[in-house]
Amino acid sequence: MNIFLIEDDEIYAEFVKRSLGQNSSYSVTVFHTAEDALRVTNSSMPDAFIVDYKLPGISGIDLYEKIKPNVSPKQKVIMLSALDDGNMVLGFIQKGVRDYVIKDESVIESLKAILEGKEDDYYLFN
Fold first, then answer.
1. DSSP secondary structure code for residue 65 in this structure
2. Percentage of residues in the chain having pLDDT higher than 90
3. Is residue 121 part of a domain?
4. Residue 50 in contact with residue 111, Cβ under 8 Å?
5. pLDDT tens digit string along 53-70?
6. Which residue range is the domain that position 52 belongs to?
7. How far apart are CA 25 and CA 9, in angstroms?
């Protein structure tokens, strides 16, 4: 599974990349700005996007709006945020984002569950 991780915090991006990279079926490419990711999506689309909501320049939700026309139902778009804000999540849902993960101690388990299509089981039992 080819994954684009768009995260401006270099240390956090490396943590997520290494954690997910323990699964040999995941190939994670990191971008530190939405603009960098957009340049690549013009020629190549991943199987999944993991996008930090708060990015310098174009925000994560604005990036989603730009790529949304080219995202197929099979592709995953996961929005990440350190904030647990119900209104923000509602805004994501209204724009079409299906998956949202809070940057907490279970972020990797949550990401893996969504990437593997097991988010319903994960959220019901953890």
1. H
2. 67
3. no
4. yes
5. 999 999 999 999 999 999
6. 9-106
7. 24
Q: How confident is the model at residue 125 (pLDDT cuts 50, 70, 90)?
A: very low
Q: Is residue 89 a part of any domain in this protein?
A: yes
Reference 81, options 8, 3, 1; nearest CA is 8
- Domain membership of residue 61 (yes or no) is yes
Task: Judge whether 67 lies within some domain.
Answer: yes
Q: Where are the beta strands (DSSP E) in 58-118?
A: 76-81, 99-102
Q: Domain holding 43: CATH number? A: 3.40.50.2300
| Identity of residue 20 | L
Domain count, the chain: 1
Task: Name the average pLDDT for the chain.
Answer: 88
Distance CA 107, CA 110 (A): 5
- To the nearest 10°, the Cα dihedral for 52, 58, 62, 64? -50
